[in-house]
Specification:
Distance between the termini: 50 Å
CATH topology of the largest domain: Ribonuclease iii, N-terminal Endonuclease Domain, Chain A
Number of helices: 11
Radius of gyration: 20 Å
Structural class: mainly alpha
Largest sheet: 3 strands, antiparallel
Mean pLDDT: 93
CATH superfamily of the largest domain: Ribonuclease III domain
Order of helices and strands: HHHHHHHHHHEEEH
Shape: flat
Length: 222
């Protein structure tokens, strides 16, 4: 696998890397008894731990809350998608697109998943130092460049509500679509007044977009 050569990985267990790029749709088609989900679970923890360590060393005076917000920017789905595409991980994914009605959003999500599953495979096969070396090449440069992948509009609105002593809440207006491809419409209420709507593939995404609209209307930070 050229990808392993790119990151100077001499595998002890090549099968781990095959598993890391195998989606459940491919497993079902070819009757395989594995997919990448367990490695993704492990890789998520490794990514959070090593990113936390890097940020803590980079910002020794930052509070726990500030470090948590900062980390969220570099481990969010948008960031993982960029890491995967920049390093051609997306080209290694084994998917069954013929028999399985995967939506575009699901394929994009899978692209993010395999970054974590590949990291999980590296950790199991090579150890923590090689996992850190991988992140030094793929993630940490974005941290040093202060790249913004995600802005937490909900936290900004919460801080505004706390400062002004006003109640901020979110309300579901609509929910439609197939179970695996739902769309949600949320609105944000500030002291009972509608300040914005958001449409997203999850309630959290829709809430963030509604909060962003409210920030514009309230001219927060401007």
């Amino acid at each position: 696998m050229k990808l392993l050569e790119k990151f100077d990985i001499v595998p002890n267990n090549e099968e781990l890397y095959e598993v890391a790029f195998t989606h459940s749709s491919y497993s079902a088609k070819y009757n395989l008894d594995y997919d990448y989900e367990r490695l993704e679970f492990l890789g998520d923890s490794v990514l959070n731990m090593l990113t936390s360590e890097f940020l803590q060393n980079m910002h020794p005076k930052f509070s726990e809350g500030k470090l948590t917000k900062l980390r969220a920017n570099y481990v969010c789905q948008n960031a993982l998608i960029v890491y995967s595409h920049e390093n051609n991980l997306d080209k290694c994914i084994r998917l069954n697109l013929e028999d399985n009605a995967l939506t575009d959003n699901e394929v994009i999500s899978i692209t993010a998943d395999v970054f974590e599953s590949f990291l999980g495979a590296i950790y199991l096969d090579q150890g923590i130092e090689k996992a850190k070396e991988f992140l030094e090449k793929t993630v940490f440069p974005y941290i040093e460049a202060k790249t913004v992948f995600f802005y937490d509009y909900k936290s900004t609105i919460k801080e505004y509500g706390d400062a002004k002593s006003v109640k901020v809440c979110y309300e579901l207006l609509e929910e439609h679509g197939a179970p695996h491809d739902k769309t949600f419409v949320m609105r944000i209420l500030i002291d009972g007044v509608d300040y914005g709507h958001g449409v997203g593939k999850s309630k959290k995404e829709a809430e963030q977009l509604a909060a962003s609209e409210a920030i514009d209307k309230l001219h927060i930070g401007k």
